[in-house]
């Protein structure tokens, strides 16, 4: 078991360019989350998937952001037309949720990756 | 918006001393989790305490939960320089909400 893997770990891009981050969750984890963290702040929720279905998106996730999890395994987060305000660390996390239902979490540990740093210049 | 608020924002102690960090939250929860984050790194899960539990231990960590006061504390005993990090509480609120983090406590343990 290799934990949650994210790449690239660092990305510097010019304003207006598109960037894509990839997340490989822990094997067989059915839930995958994306968070964003800026310096001095805690992680802020962006979106999450249950298998391949994207079940919730935060208001932080503007139209320029899109996330996919096509086969219920890895996920990508794409930011189009990047702005300087997008500079942050993007964290991916996964968990294995038992049972069904609408609750986002059911008391299981959520494991985070090392994050992907984005700097928009 | 952030549900949890850690207190203090920053804490500096000598190696060997105990460190206590507090977390307050606003709404009813299913569980509360504590995470550690070294500078520039991802979050490492420390401990999860459910709403029907009052205290949990893991090694040098002790977590308490008071649902009537909507607060939790994390105690690190016999601190080490390697404990230097930011510590976050995160709540899993009842209902359809994601894990919500506070702003964290920055702990510095001086050797």
Concise overview:
The complex is a heterodimer of chains A (121) and B (111). Chain A is mostly beta strands and 121 residues long.
Describe this structure in words.
The complex is a heterodimer of chains A (121) and B (111). Chain A has no helices and eleven strands. Chain A has 121 residues and is mainly β. In chain A, the strands form two sheets. In chain A, strands 2, 4, 5, 6, 9, 10 and 11 form a seven-stranded mixed β-sheet that branches. Chain B has strands at residues 5-7, 10-14, 19-24, 29-37, 43-50, 55-58, 61-66, 71-76, 85-93, 100-101, 105-110. At the A-B interface, strand 5, strand 9 and strand 10 of A face strand 4, strand 5, strand 9 and strand 10 of B.
List the helices and strands and how they pair.
The complex is a heterodimer of chains A (about 120) and B (about 110).
Chain A: E1 5-7, E2 10-13, E3 19-24, E4 31-37, E5 44-50, E6 53-57, E7 65-68, E8 75-79, E9 88-95, E10 111-112, E11 116-120
Parallel strand pairs in A: 2-11
Antiparallel strand pairs in A: 1-3, 3-8, 4-5, 4-9, 5-6, 7-8, 9-10, 9-11
Chain B: E1 5-7, E2 10-14, E3 19-24, E4 29-37, E5 43-50, E6 55-58, E7 61-66, E8 71-76, E9 85-93, E10 100-101, E11 105-110
Gyration radius over CA of chain B = 13 Å
Classify the helix fraction of chain B into a percent range.
under 10%
Strands of chain A, count = 11
- Give helix % range of chain A: under 10%
Structural class of chain A: mainly beta
Beta fraction of the residues of chain B? over 45%
State the distance separating the first and last CA atoms of chain A. Answer: 36 Å
Mean pLDDT of chain A: 90
Structural class, from secondary structure content of chain B? Answer: mainly beta
Number of strands of chain B: 11
Largest sheet of chain A: 7 strands, mixed
Mean pLDDT of chain B: 91
Oligomeric state of the chains in view: heterodimer
Give the uncertain stretches of chain A in residue-range form.
101-105
């Amino acid at each position: 078991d290799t934990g949650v893997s994210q790449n690239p770990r660092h990305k510097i891009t010019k304003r207006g360019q598109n960037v894509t981050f990839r997340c490989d969750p822990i094997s067989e984890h059915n839930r995958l989350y994306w968070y964003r963290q800026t310096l001095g702040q805690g992680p802020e929720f962006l979106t999450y998937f249950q298998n391949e279905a994207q079940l919730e998106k935060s208001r932080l996730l503007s139209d320029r952001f899109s996330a996919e999890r096509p086969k219920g395994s890895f996920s990508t987060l794409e930011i189009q037309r990047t702005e300087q305000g997008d500079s942050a660390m993007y964290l991916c996390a996964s968990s294995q949720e038992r049972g069904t239902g609408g609750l986002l979490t059911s008391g299981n540990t959520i494991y985070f990756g090392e994050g992907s740093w984005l700097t928009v210049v | 918006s952030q549900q949890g608020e850690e207190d203090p924002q920053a804490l500096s102690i000598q190696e060997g001393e105990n460190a206590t960090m507090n977390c307050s939250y606003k709404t009813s929860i299913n569980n509360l989790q504590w995470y550690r984050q070294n500078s520039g790194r991802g979050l490492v899960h420390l401990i999860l305490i459910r709403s029907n539990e009052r205290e949990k231990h893991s090694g040098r960590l002790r977590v308490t939960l008071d649902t009537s006061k909507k607060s939790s504390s994390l105690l690190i005993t016999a601190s080490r320089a390697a404990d230097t990090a930011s510590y976050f509480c995160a709540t899993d609120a009842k209902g359809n909400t994601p894990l919500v983090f506070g702003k964290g406590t920055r702990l510095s343990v001086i050797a």
